[in-house]
Amino acid sequence: MTAKRAVSETAAASSSDSTARGIGVAGLVVGVLGPAAAVSAVLRGRSAGSRLE
Q1: What pLDDT was estimated at residue 45?
Q2: pLDDT in tens, 8-48
Q3: Whole-angstrom distance, CA of residue 50 vs CA of residue 27
Q4: How far apart are CA 31 and CA 7, in angstroms?
Q5: CA torsion angle for 10, 12, 17, 18 (degrees, to 10)?
Q6: Distance between CA atoms of 2 and 11, rounded to whole angstroms?
Q7: DSSP state of 6
Q8: Of 1 and 20, which is predicted with more confidence?
């Protein structure tokens, strides 16, 4: 393996690693927002239901 090829492979791995990291972080954020939205909806439903009684 030549030094030039090693550098290009390292650069490619580095850029794809940052892309994967970004997608992973976005997935974690969406994963946290889903249950938070569900809790918010349940609490709103309870407070709206109590006003109707």
Answers
A1: 85
A2: 666 666 667 899 999 999 999 999 999 999 999 999 988 87
A3: 35
A4: 36
A5: 110
A6: 14
A7: H
A8: 20
